[in-house]
């Protein structure tokens, strides 16, 4: 599209600043492909999945065929796309439901990235091609029942034996845990925190799915339990030493959230906008009233600013210049504004806003989890506080 036609063509309320013009043809093609796929194969069914607390495992081979699993990694059957393309895919997945983005994020940015960055060549060869092909599912065991925001206090231990390691402990709130073929698990050892590759079926390793969730209902969330779980010596990720390793994985996942949350926000905004144009009260569409327009304008402003922020961080990541505190900036801002947009959209829909016939409250419920996982609002605030003042408030 020429510069002139962009300036005179129809306005896209979800892209008021024409941020799409800043994308390459390949990036736009990836975004369009993911959008078409999830709109056709997921959007018509997601309300049922949410209501029935069911994860759509049938979508996994389709995601693999699109190259979404570990898409920003290179080699081992991974697509090797740039960071912006990965972000755009996350946006389109979460525009349907956070559970879809969470699955892809945990598979690629946590489990696969941990193996790709810190694993042995044998571990990479065994797992990464299968995970990229959707033939094996991974999960990432860091969070514990009593140690969420402070992983340095983890209680899970790995003790050396003559034949390898013995793992004991519990991990909690683990996405994909109940369906994972392999878990990347972090434990305290005499030499510090280390990572381990634990296949399903290993003696002493069990999972229990968490029920009765009011958020991320279309996602599998589980407890991982290790009771004298014996592992061979080569189960350890050889390049992972200390907490820096799992935190590096979390930064990869947080980057996807920076984009994904905006997908949920876009759906809520577009739903509210359509509703405001069609719903009539007092003889005219509610979108013609000043108070409703004020809400829609505020939502559009935050959505479009968030898109520019995500794109800026994506370009910095592709240039190898993205800092962890900048990821915190993006996660803190974009999830917070996405949740605000979802809540405001609910008010425009009135009573219809609480129905699963509309996606708004489903997204709002999901975003309550996104607000907390991969670092709470408080944690990211203190990360930025330290970056600004040079003083740590964590200890």
UniProtKB/TrEMBL annotation:
<dbReference type="InterPro" id="IPR013786">
    <property type="entry name" value="AcylCoA_DH/ox_N"/>
</dbReference>
<protein>
    <submittedName>
        <fullName>Glutaryl-CoA dehydrogenase</fullName>
        <ecNumber>1.3.8.6</ecNumber>
    </submittedName>
</protein>
<dbReference type="InterPro" id="IPR052033">
    <property type="entry name" value="Glutaryl-CoA_DH_mitochondrial"/>
</dbReference>
<keyword id="KW-0285">Flavoprotein</keyword>
<dbReference type="InterPro" id="IPR046373">
    <property type="entry name" value="Acyl-CoA_Oxase/DH_mid-dom_sf"/>
</dbReference>
<feature type="domain" description="Acyl-CoA oxidase/dehydrogenase middle">
    <location>
        <begin position="139"/>
        <end position="229"/>
    </location>
</feature>
<dbReference type="InterPro" id="IPR036250">
    <property type="entry name" value="AcylCo_DH-like_C"/>
</dbReference>
<dbReference type="GO" id="GO:0004361">
    <property type="term" value="F:glutaryl-CoA dehydrogenase activity"/>
</dbReference>
<dbReference type="GO" id="GO:0050660">
    <property type="term" value="F:flavin adenine dinucleotide binding"/>
</dbReference>
<keyword id="KW-0809">Transit peptide</keyword>
<dbReference type="InterPro" id="IPR009100">
    <property type="entry name" value="AcylCoA_DH/oxidase_NM_dom_sf"/>
</dbReference>
<dbReference type="InterPro" id="IPR006091">
    <property type="entry name" value="Acyl-CoA_Oxase/DH_mid-dom"/>
</dbReference>
<dbReference type="Pfam" id="PF02771">
    <property type="entry name" value="Acyl-CoA_dh_N"/>
</dbReference>
<dbReference type="InterPro" id="IPR037069">
    <property type="entry name" value="AcylCoA_DH/ox_N_sf"/>
</dbReference>
<dbReference type="Pfam" id="PF02770">
    <property type="entry name" value="Acyl-CoA_dh_M"/>
</dbReference>
<keyword id="KW-0560">Oxidoreductase</keyword>
<dbReference type="GO" id="GO:0033539">
    <property type="term" value="P:fatty acid beta-oxidation using acyl-CoA dehydrogenase"/>
</dbReference>
<dbReference type="GO" id="GO:0046949">
    <property type="term" value="P:fatty-acyl-CoA biosynthetic process"/>
</dbReference>
<feature type="domain" description="Acyl-CoA dehydrogenase/oxidase C-terminal">
    <location>
        <begin position="241"/>
        <end position="388"/>
    </location>
</feature>
<dbReference type="InterPro" id="IPR009075">
    <property type="entry name" value="AcylCo_DH/oxidase_C"/>
</dbReference>
<dbReference type="Pfam" id="PF00441">
    <property type="entry name" value="Acyl-CoA_dh_1"/>
</dbReference>
<keyword id="KW-0274">FAD</keyword>
<dbReference type="GO" id="GO:0000062">
    <property type="term" value="F:fatty-acyl-CoA binding"/>
</dbReference>
<comment type="similarity">
    <text>Belongs to the acyl-CoA dehydrogenase family.</text>
</comment>
<feature type="domain" description="Acyl-CoA dehydrogenase/oxidase N-terminal">
    <location>
        <begin position="24"/>
        <end position="135"/>
    </location>
</feature>
């Amino acid at each position: 599209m020429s510069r002139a036609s962009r300036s005179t063509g129809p306005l896209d309320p979800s892209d008021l600043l024409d941020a799409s013009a800043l994308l390459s043809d390949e990036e736009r093609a990836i975004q369009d492909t993911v959008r078409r796929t999830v709109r056709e194969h997921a959007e018509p069914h997601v309300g049922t999945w949410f209501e029935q607390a069911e994860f759509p495992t049938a979508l996994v081979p389709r995601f693999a065929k699109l190259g979404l699993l570990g898409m920003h990694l290179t080699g081992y059957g991974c697509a090797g796309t740039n960071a912006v393309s990965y972000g755009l895919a996350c946006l389109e997945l979460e525009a349907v439901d956070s559970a879809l983005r969470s699955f892809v994020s945990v598979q690629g940015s946590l489990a696969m990235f941990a193996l790709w960055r810190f694993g042995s060549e044998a571990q990479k060869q065994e797992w990464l091609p299968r995970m990229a092909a959707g033939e094996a599912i991974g999960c990432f065991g860091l969070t514990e029942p009593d140690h969420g925001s402070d992983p340095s206090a983890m209680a899970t231990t790995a003790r050396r034996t003559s034949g390898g390691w013995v793992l004991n402990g519990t991990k909690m709130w683990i996405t994909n845990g109940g369906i994972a073929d392999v878990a990347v698990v972090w434990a305290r050892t005499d030499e510090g925190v280390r990572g381990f590759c634990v296949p399903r079926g290993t003696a002493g390793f069990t999972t229990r799915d968490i029920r009765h969730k009011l958020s991320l209902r279309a996602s599998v969330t589980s407890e991982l339990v290790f009771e004298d779980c014996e592992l061979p010596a080569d189960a350890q990720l050889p390049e992972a030493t200390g907490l820096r390793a799992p935190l590096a994985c979390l930064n990869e996942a947080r980057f996807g959230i920076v984009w994904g949350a905006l997908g949920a926000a876009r759906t809520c905004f577009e739903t509210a906008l359509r509703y405001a144009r069609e719903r009539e009260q007092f003889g005219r569409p509610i979108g013609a009233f000043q108070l409703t327009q004020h809400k829609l304008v505020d939502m559009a402003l935050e959505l479009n600013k968030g898109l520019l922020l995500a794109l800026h961080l994506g370009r910095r990541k592709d240039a190898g210049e993205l800092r962890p505190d900048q990821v915190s900036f993006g996660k803190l801002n974009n999830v917070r504004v996405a949740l605000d947009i979802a809540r405001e959209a609910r008010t425009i829909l009135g009573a219809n806003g609480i129905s699963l016939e509309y996606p708004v409250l489903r997204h709002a419920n999901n975003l309550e989890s996104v607000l907390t996982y991969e670092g709470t609002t408080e944690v990211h605030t203190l990360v930025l506080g330290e970056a600004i003042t040079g003083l740590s408030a964590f200890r």
